[in-house]
Design brief:
Acyltransferase, Trimer_LpxA-like_sf, Hexapeptide_acetyltransf, mainly beta, Hexapep
Length: about 140
C-alpha cells in the first residue's frame, strides 16, 4: 500500500488490504499517525481533515470508518454539499480494541484499554477501560 507523506506508520504495524488512509486534500493540518504494533483490518477507512492518531498495540477490526468531519445542513437554499464542513480530531489511545464495522465520528477520543463492540457508532469520547456498543454507542460495562 502506498503511504502518503502525511501518514506515519510505526514499527510492527500490520495493515491489511483495501485500507484507505486519507489525510485531507488541501487541509494543511491533516495527518495520520499509527503507533507501533497496531493492527488495522481490511477495508477500514480513515478520512480526516485534522490530526488523527491510533496509539500502540491497538486492534482495529475490518470495515471500520473514522471520519472527523461532517457537512452542516442549516440553509435549505444551499445544497448540503456546498455548506460549511465542521471538523474535530479523533484519537484512539493505546491498547484499544474496535470491533468490526464500527464508525467513529468527529471529536471522539477512545481512551486507553477501551473496547468498542462490533457495529457501534461512537459519537462521544469513551473513558479508559470501558466497553461501549450500540447506535449511538453507550457504556455497556467496565473492564476493571
Amino acid at each position: 500500500m502506498p503511504v502518503p507523506e502525511q501518514v506515519i506508520i510505526g514499527d510492527g504495524c500490520e495493515i491489511e488490504d483495501h485500507v484507505r488512509l486519507r489525510a485531507g486534500g488541501n487541509w494543511k493540518s491533516a495527518s495520520i499517525v499509527i503507533d507501533k504494533d497496531s493492527f488495522i483490518g481490511h477495508s477500514t477507512q480513515i478520512n480526516v481533515r485534522g490530526p488523527f492518531k491510533i496509539g500502540s498495540k491497538c486492534l482495529i477490526a475490518p470495515m471500520c470508518v473514522f471520519s472527523d468531519a461532517h457537512h452542516t445542513f442549516i440553509d435549505i437554499n444551499i445544497p448540503i454539499k456546498n455548506q460549511k464542513c465542521l471538523s474535530s480530531s479523533i484519537e484512539v489511545e493505546d491498547d484499544v480494541w474496535i470491533g468490526t464495522g464500527c464508525t467513529v465520528l468527529r471529536g471522539v477520543t477512545i481512551h486507553t484499554g477501551a473496547v468498542i463492540a462490533a457495529g457501534a457508532v461512537v459519537t462521544e469520547s469513551v473513558p479508559p477501560y470501558e466497553i461501549w456498543g450500540g447506535i449511538p454507542a453507550r457504556k455497556l460495562k467496565s473492564r476493571k
